[in-house]
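User: For my dataset I need records formatted as: sequence, then structure tokens, nothing else. Please produce one.
Assistant:
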Amino acid sequence: MKLVIQRVKKAKVTSEGKTVGQIDRGLFILLGVGKQDSFNTVFAMAQKCVELRIMADKDGKMNLSVKDMGGEILIVSQFTLYADTSGGRRPSFVNAAEPDLARQVYERFVQSLKELGVKVEIGSFGNYMEIESAADGPVTIILES
């Protein structure tokens, strides 16, 4: 599992002309599922995201987690995080999970975030999406299981 986590002032996902997920201050997360991934690490990765101290405190220091400051999370599935460009200019996605496994891991991850007490919004799995976000910092963290 690969995660790209960005601290945002706001973020919104639109699919087929409709807003499907929108947050104010919090984390925008792109989640990629690899074909080797399983449910074993999902909860631990969700907990890491919720407890990651990258939100600014009253002094502007990264001392708070998204949960500490009452923030929100917008999560979007993105298989392209598993792109392999070592063979040329056109990316290969052979290391990305098949859609059924990817959806199951994604849904379990979303559920885990909710169980950890954070408000969660989602994108539109498997569909073309337009994403608008206002980076805060910018702060961007990459996690891999």
